[in-house]
Amino acid sequence: MNSQIFSPSYPKSRMRRLRKSDFILRMLTENNLSTNNLIFPLFVIEGNRIKEQVSSMPGIYVYSIDEILYMAEKCIELGIPTIALFPVVNPELKTNNGIESINADGLIPRTVIEIKKHFPELGIMTDVALDPYTIHGQDGILDNNGYVLNDETITMLTKQSLLHASVGVDIVAPSDMMDGRIGVIRQELESNQYKNTIIMAYSAKYSSSFYGPFRDAIRSTNNLKKGNKNSYQMNPSNIDEAIREAAADITEGADMLIVKPGMPYLDVLAKIKEKFRMPTFAYQVSGEYSMIKAASLNGWIRNDEIILESLICFRRAGADGILTYFALEAAELLIKSK
Ligand code: PBG
C-alpha cells in the first residue's frame, strides 16, 4: 500500500520527529500548568480542632476555622493564590429562606475575618448561594409550589454579597443561576463602596449529577431529597444557551466566568473562552474528583498522572484557571517536577 495516498507530505513530514525525546517535547509544549492556575475549594464547619473526611471524597476534609488556617498557610507555601470557601451549616440554622446566609456573625464571615487576619495576601473567594442554608437544599426562596423565586432570591444574594465584601472577601462567586443577579450585585457593590470586589460568575452552571459528593460534604443531600435544580441550572444538552448566559453576565458586570462541571463540559469552556476572551475558569467538581480518586485508590489508574493530565486539558481548552479539589496534590506534584 502506498502511504503517500493518505499522507502526501510523508516522509518529508514525520510528526514523530517532534516527539522523539524529552528536550523537544518540552520545547514544543503549547500549554502549561502552574500553581497560579489553581483555586482550592475548602469546606468549613463550626467547632474546634475538627478535620473530618468527606466520605464520598477520600482525601478531602471539612475543617473548623482553626484548622482551615493550616490549610490557608499550606496554600500560600505551595503558591496557590486563592481558596474558595464553602460552609457546612448547622442543620438547626437551616430555614426556608436561608436567612443565616446574611448573618454578619455567621460561619463564613468569621472564617474570612480569621484568615485575613493571619494571611492577608491569600485570595479568598466565597460562594454566593442559599443552598447550604435552606431546609429544602435549593439555591433560592420557594413559592407555595416549590418553584424557586428569582427576584426574591436575588435580594438575599445581594445582601450576602455585600456581607462577604464587607468582611474582606476578594471574589464573590454567585453560583445560583438566578437571572439578573450579577447586575444587581454589581450595582449594590458599586453604591456601597466595594468597587474593587471581583465578581466571578458561575455563568454556565449545569444541572449536574456530578455535584453529588459536594452535597454530601455540605450536608444538603438530605435536604434536597429527590429534588433537582432543573428550573435554574442548565440542561446538559445545551451550549447556545451557555453563550447567552455568559453574555448576560458580562453585560451585567462580571469580571470572570466559570463553567461547571469541568471535564465533561470542555466544549462549553472552549466556546465561551473563544467568543468572549474573558478570564474563564473551569470547576472540576466533586463528582469528577471522586471518580478519579476512587479509581486511583483501587489501583485502576495512575493517580498523579491523571491529575496533571486532567488539569492540563482544562488549560488546553482555554481555562485561565481551575477550581479543583486536587489543588494541593497538583501543586505538590508541580513543585516536585521542577
Ligand atoms: C451551590 C454549589 C454547588 C457546587 C458549588 N456551589 C452544588 C449545587 O449547585 O448543588 C458544586 C461543587 C462541586 O460539586 O464540587 N450552589
UniProtKB/TrEMBL annotation:
<dbReference type="InterPro" id="IPR013785">
    <property type="entry name" value="Aldolase_TIM"/>
</dbReference>
<comment type="similarity">
    <text>Belongs to the ALAD family.</text>
</comment>
<dbReference type="GO" id="GO:0006782">
    <property type="term" value="P:protoporphyrinogen IX biosynthetic process"/>
</dbReference>
<comment type="subunit">
    <text>Homooctamer.</text>
</comment>
<dbReference type="Pfam" id="PF00490">
    <property type="entry name" value="ALAD"/>
</dbReference>
<protein>
    <recommendedName>
        <fullName>Delta-aminolevulinic acid dehydratase</fullName>
        <ecNumber>4.2.1.24</ecNumber>
    </recommendedName>
</protein>
<keyword id="KW-0479">Metal-binding</keyword>
<comment type="pathway">
    <text>Porphyrin-containing compound metabolism; protoporphyrin-IX biosynthesis; coproporphyrinogen-III from 5-aminolevulinate: step 1/4.</text>
</comment>
<feature type="active site" description="Schiff-base intermediate with substrate">
    <location>
        <position position="205"/>
    </location>
</feature>
<keyword id="KW-0460">Magnesium</keyword>
<keyword id="KW-0627">Porphyrin biosynthesis</keyword>
<dbReference type="GO" id="GO:0005829">
    <property type="term" value="C:cytosol"/>
</dbReference>
<keyword id="KW-0456">Lyase</keyword>
<keyword id="KW-0350">Heme biosynthesis</keyword>
<feature type="active site" description="Schiff-base intermediate with substrate">
    <location>
        <position position="260"/>
    </location>
</feature>
<dbReference type="GO" id="GO:0004655">
    <property type="term" value="F:porphobilinogen synthase activity"/>
</dbReference>
<feature type="binding site">
    <location>
        <position position="245"/>
    </location>
    <ligand>
        <name>Mg(2+)</name>
    </ligand>
</feature>
<dbReference type="InterPro" id="IPR030656">
    <property type="entry name" value="ALAD_AS"/>
</dbReference>
<dbReference type="InterPro" id="IPR001731">
    <property type="entry name" value="ALAD"/>
</dbReference>
<dbReference type="GO" id="GO:0008270">
    <property type="term" value="F:zinc ion binding"/>
</dbReference>
